[in-house]
Specification:
This protein is mainly beta and 157 residues long. Helix content is 0%, strand content 37%.
Length: 157
């Protein structure tokens, strides 16, 4: 039996959210994605010994990996505990390679109220395949062409 990458058919969306004239990523933001009908985007997640629908929240890439063991059916990935080295301390979300994000929006909210909520459009050009490229900063896009990894730059006011 061939070994597969734990991120087969998975891509990542990375957001660099900062204020004007400041490159520091703003911490503690609430970031969600809305589908074409305006509903919160969800995915199926295996937890509590069953598949459950959960809301797709972006999380800030952790400083280090705290996930333990190998990723398999008995120990499913807990992406929030895995550091993606290329993503630095930006916000990340792991998604399916097969999703079409045309018409999707990302909402970025600051619970402290210091910054205004911002909505941005997302396209498939903002996603990067994870399988085979975990430690790299050059990626193949969906057409197979090499592209340089770039997070989506978001400026909050």
């Amino acid at each position: 039996m061939a070994q597969h990458c734990p991120y087969d058919f998975s891509s990542i969306i990375v957001l660099n959210v900062h204020a004007k004239n400041d490159t520091t990523v703003i911490p503690n933001l609430k970031i969600v994605m809305y589908d074409t009908a305006g509903n919160l985007a969800t995915r199926n997640k295996y937890q509590n010994n069953k598949w459950e629908k959960v809301i797709d929240y972006f999380w800030q890439n952790p400083a280090k990996t705290t996930f333990k063991g190998y990723i398999d059916n008995n120990n499913p990935a807990e992406n929030e505990k895995i550091r993606f080295p290329f993503a630095k301390r930006n916000y990340v979300l792991v998604v399916s390679d097969y999703m079409d994000f045309t018409g999707y929006k990302i909402a970025i909210e600051d619970p402290s109220g210091k910054y205004n909520t911002k909505y941005i459009d997302i396209t498939n050009k903002g996603t990067y395949s994870l399988c085979g490229t975990y430690h790299r900063e050059d990626y193949k896009d969906r057409s197979g062409s090499e592209v340089i990894y770039q997070p989506i730059d978001v400026l909050l006011k």
